[in-house]
Amino acid sequence: MSFITDNLPQVLMVLGILALIIEVAVLGLTTFILLFLGISLFVTGLLMSLGIMTDSITTALWSNTLITAALAILLWKPLKKMQSNVDRKQVNSDFAELTFVLSSDLNEQQVSTYKYSGISWQLKSEQPLSAGTRVKVVKKEVGVMWVAEIANDD
Question: What residue spans define the domains of the chain?
């Protein structure tokens, strides 16, 4: 305990950096609490090491309480807005160029599957396709590949 009280500013800054690393690297900014706390701990430690604040546990507790609350009030809405801006663009992956020949008819009444990468994928299409048709994957969902017929000029 004496190590912590003797080196309180440095301990606070290290704890602040650890909280920031956990928030960003492990949690991916999904919760902002560790972000606010990490910034607060680091700023308090920095202010104590510069001599602006006295280095006592009581000062550290009050300072972190006030700075964390202020950061939460000031940054909650902008960070929440930033978090809600999600790019909905389809990402091309190894499915992007996947083509194959249907082994069975594909329509709304018949469920067809295709085994790829050790997984049986359910196939869906916007139009009925007959067995033997060459298709390509146009969209992916969980457990589902949407396919379309390949035109003769492809």
Answer: 2-84, 99-149
For 30, the token pair is 């999904």
58 alpha-carbon distance from chain centroid? 36
* CATH class of the structural domain 99-149: mainly beta
Q: Which two tokens stand for residue 26?
A: 């492990």
Residue 141's alpha-carbon distances to 57, 59, 85, 121, in angstroms, are 53, 53, 21, 10
Is the whole-model pTM more than 0.70?
Answer: no
pLDDT in tens, 25-57: 888 877 888 999 999 999 999 999 999 999 899
The total number of residues shown for the chain amounts to: 154
Q: What are phi and psi of 101, to 5 degrees?
A: -105, 130
Q: Which helix (H) or strand (E) covers residue 146, if one does?
A: strand 144-149
Q: Which two tokens stand for residue 111?
A: 């469920």
